[in-house]
Structures are given as structure tokens and as C-alpha cells.
Amino acid sequence: MNPYVPVLIMLFLAAATAAGMIAATTWIGPKKKFADKMEPFECGESPIVNPKQRFSVKFYLVALFFVIFDIETVFVYPWAVLFRELNWFGFVEMMIFIFILAVGLIYVWRRGALEWD
Amino acid sequence: MEQVMSSISLSAIAPELVLVACGLIVLMIQAVFGSRFRDSFAYVSLLGIGGAAFLVLTSPGAFESKIVEYSFCDMWVVDNFSRFFKLIFLIGTGLTLLISLRYLDNEAMQHSEYYALMLLCTVGMMVMASAAELITIFLGVELMSISLYALAGYTRSRMMSNEAAIKYFILGSFASGFLIYGIALIYGTTGTSQIPAIARYLAQAGAGAAVLVMGMALLIIGFGFKTASVPFHMWAPDVYEGAPAPVTGFMSAGPKAAAFAAFVRIFMEALPTLQTDWIMVIWLIAVLTMTVGNIIALVQENIKRMLAYSSIAHAGYVLVAFLAAGELGLTSILYYMLAYTFMNIGAFAVITMLAGAGETRVKVEDYRGVGYKHPVAALAMSLFLFSLAGIPPTGGFMGKFYIFSAAVKQGYIWLAIIGVLNSVVSVYYYLRVTVAMYMQAPEKDEDVPAASALSPALVVAIFISAYGVLSLGLFPSTYVAMVKESFLSFL
């Protein structure tokens, strides 16, 4: 038998138990609904505004920049590990890559995308 | 490591490097100097296009020998097939830039981003034409598509343009998903993503695996979307209608040709052993694409939308040539894509010229009386429309002639008959514009649209397109010789 089968059975049992408890209390348990009870229970501030608000598009812009420059790091780490083996070839290649990203950064900065207001 | 370094060949990607450099330079000009040198954007971009075309034409052995050069660990291939397609893309982009000069001024959108996106989009298309490996092709598809999504929404104050960009982006990403899934399944069965290696594997192991056929089917869906073939065409009319007119012309020529370039390379080189599986599917898609495109185009009132459906129909004709395969079929694909680039971008040049601020004059009825007020433009427009309809002595006629004769020679008689019938149907809606231009009077003389985007550059673009359409129709032998050098240099 595949050694993972017991794990799967265990997983299934755990999930079924958890789901079963929730389902059982939902079906069997008594329900008395009143206004206070419908509020978030003992977990933080009571809500003052509707949470379904629109966010400023600027947040997405910042997130996008983060992703772009985060990718840079993803490439730089393996390069740093192999730096000695890659030698000058790797150095030049990485400098070209960083140069292109720097052009992007200058563009973003000069076009005012980094300013919040 | 040594192997990686020795396979790097900068001369093989020189045209692409030039375009990327020009794109970055254009961006930097605006970033550093602001809008002071905004006139230079177009010059730098056109210089880049010219330089790239020069490099393509002068690369060793161009259009003379059938040498196929692999580089970058066999991920990149330079052959006449890719060179020919690169020239088509560069012509398309160059003409589009000439058309859009005054248009962007009128819309007060003369920004470096437009040029940078155009150039990067062209690089993406060139990568698609030159990639010898599935992931690299996907990279090209994405570079091209992402630039196009942004270009479709370039006139950002216009709701239609925004809608076009969002629709194109969502549906396009979805289609890219199909493409990458297909690539994954093919990689899963063959153990390689390199096109020649896949072909070698399939020649040895046979092509019975169901997973492989599924991967192929997903690729057909992905490329079907990128070429706007029925039933994956739904995005095209809305996107073509909403995008700025020069971008629409660009989008319906270059990227479509690029998708066909990659499509042909993958299917003819990597998966020829699966031909029996794909023939029926593509046959059906070709018939549907031609018929649906032409019939829906009949009732369109918006000329951009009409040309969108016409563009769908033209993808169908190219699929006929794709099915015919062989020497004749593939040469006719190359020939047709070149002719289509000239005639379609030419038609969009006239549309751009007459569209007016905010593109308000794009109905067929707006063209009433244009023949008398703008005789040269109307003549050129008629030429392009005749060519799209496939009436001699134009490039469109010769292209269709080659396609249908290839289909008949390969025994696809019915396909050729359906194709010719479709051409007949298409004449009606193309000529409707000509009839409006020459034979119908507007209610008031002021109703004839002014040539608001007219500029010397636009005139040059129209003349180049007209020259291309006519010379492809009158002297096909020069082009056929070039095409014969380029077709199938990978087989």
C-alpha cells in the first residue's frame, strides 16, 4: 500500500470531524438571534463603517512596484551564491539586468508614480 | 557553463536589442527631460525600427541560403522564416507609428509610453517568430500581449478604450493560461520544450499519447485566441472597436502574423506527426472563422467593428493555407500576411485620418461624400478595401489566389469553395464603404469628416501601403522569390 494512504485517511478523518462538529451545531443547536449577537464576538473593535470600501488605486501601484523589484531579488540571490563560478560573465550580465531595472526605477520616479498625493 | 556562454550570440538577437534599447531611450527622454523633446519620441522609435530592419536584412545569409542558425542553447533560431516575419512586424510597426503621429497630438496623448509599448510589443512578436523553444515562445506571447493590453487602453479618458483594455486583458490572460497548460502537457509527454527535440522524440516514439493530443488541443485554443479564430474570437470586435484607431490597425496585422508564425513553427516543425489529429479541428475552425467573420461583418455600422470581423475572416483564409501546408500552403501564409499588413494598416490610416477628435466619425455613414472632399484618401481607401475583398490587381487578390490554389492542390476542394464563396460575401461590406464615399451625398456638406489627423507622415504611410498593395498584386514574382526562400526553412 502506498505509504501516503494512512496520511490521507487521517487528513480525511480530521477534516470530517471538524466539518461534522460545525454542521452538527448548526443543525441541532438552538438559535436565538438578536442584534448584539450578530456582531463580531469578542474579537476586536465593533465595526464603525462598512468594510466593503474601495481602495485607492495607488495601493495597487505600490504592490506592483514591489513585485517587480522583488523579482530582482529573486534573481540576485542565486547569482550571489554562484558569483565566483560565474565570474566576469555573470557580473556583466547581472549589471545589465540591474541597469534595465534601474531605468524602470528612474522612469517610475520621474513620472511621479512614487508620490502619494 | 562553458556551453551556455559559447551559445550566446548577440548578433542573433541584434534587431531585438536595438528595439529594446530604443524603447528604453524613449522612456528615459521623457523621464529626464519631461515633455520638452516630445517630438523626438517618434524619430528615435522610427530610427530603431529602421535599424532593426537593416540588421534583419543584412544578417549573414539573409534570404540567400537556407542556413538555420541556433543559438542560446537551441532556444533561439534565426532562419529566413523568422526574418520574413520580423520584416512584416517591422513594416507594421513603422507604418503604425507614422499614422499615429498627428493622432496622438490631437488626442493630447503624445507620450513616450506609446512608443515604448509599440517597440516592446514588436520585440515580443519577433521573439515569437524566432523562438525555437516553447517557453521562449510563451515569453514572446506575453511581452506582446501585455504591451497590447496597455495600448488598447491608451486613450485612457475614453470609456470604450478602457473597456477594450480590460476585456482584452482578462480574456487574453485566460487564453495565455490555455497556452501554458498546453506547453506543460507537451513537455510532460516529450520531456523537452525545444521544438526540434520534440519533433525528434515524436518521430521515434510515435504520437499516440492522449495527453499529447490534449496539449495540442490546448495550444490550438491559445493560438486560436491570439489569431481571433472562431469560436475564440469574441474579444476581437469589442477590443478593435474600443482601442485607438492606429492601435487597432497595428493589432490586427502584426500580432496576428506573430501568432501564425509561432503556430506554424510549433505545428509544422514540432508536431507534424499529429497532423491526422489536428486536420479535422482546424478544418472546422477555418470554415467557422471565415463564415462567421464575413456574415457578421455584413451588418456592422461601425467601420472599425466591421474591419474587426473582416480581420477574423482573414484569419480564416490563413487557416486554409495552414491546412494545405506543404510548400505552397506555407508560402501563401507568408505572402498573405505581408499583403494583409499593407492593406489593413493602410485602411486604418484612412480611418485614423478621418476619425476626428475622440474618434466620433467611425460609422460607415460618416464616409458619405468623402470621395469628393478627400479624393486621394478615398482612392487609397478604395484600393485597400478592394485588396481586402480580393479584387485584382491588388496584393489581397494574389494572396487569396495562392491560398486557394494551395488548398485545391492539397485536395481541400470544399474548403477552397467555401473560402471563395466567403470572399464573394465579403465584397458586399467592403464595397459599402466605397459606395458611401462616392455615391451617397451627406445631408449637409459640413457632415463630411475633416482630415483631422492628416500629416506628412500619414501621407507617407498611405503611399507606402498603397505601393505595397499594388506591387504585391502586380509584380508578385519578386515577393514570391523571397517567400520561397523563407517558407519552411526549418523542415
By DSSP, the count of extended strands of chain B is 2
**Number of helix segments of chain A?**
3
What can be said about the biggest beta sheet of chain B?
2 strands, antiparallel
Order of helices and strands of chain A: HHH
Question: pLDDT below 50 for ≥5 consecutive residues: which ranges of chain B?
Answer: none
Low-confidence runs of chain A: none
What does this structure look like?
The complex is a heterodimer of chains A (117) and B (491). With 117 residues, chain A is mainly alpha-helical. The longest helix of chain A has 28 residues, at 83-110. Chain A has two domains: 4-38; 57-110, Methane Monooxygenase Hydroxylase, Chain G, domain 1, CATH 1.20.58. Chain A is flat. Chain A contains three helices and no strands. The termini of chain A are far apart. By secondary structure, chain B is mostly helical. Chain B has one domain. In chain B, 75% of the residues lie in helices and 1% in strands.
Descriptive tags:
heterodimer, A: 117 residues, mainly alpha, Methane Monooxygenase Hydroxylase, Chain G, domain 1, 2 domains, 67% helix, B: 491 residues, two-stranded antiparallel sheet, 20 helices, 2 strands, 75% helix
Quick structural summary:
With 117 residues, chain A is mainly α.
Secondary structure topology:
The complex is a heterodimer of chains A (about 120) and B (about 500).
Chain A: H1 4-28, H2 57-81, H3 83-110
Chain B: H1 2-6, H2 14-33, H3 40-58, E1 69-71, E2 76-78, H4 80-106, H5 112-130, H6 134-152, H7 159-190, H8 195-205, H9 210-226, H10 235-242, H11 245-270, H12 275-297, H13 303-324, H14 326-355, H15 370-373, H16 375-389, H17 395-409, H18 413-439, H19 456-474, H20 476-486
Antiparallel strand pairs in B: 1-2
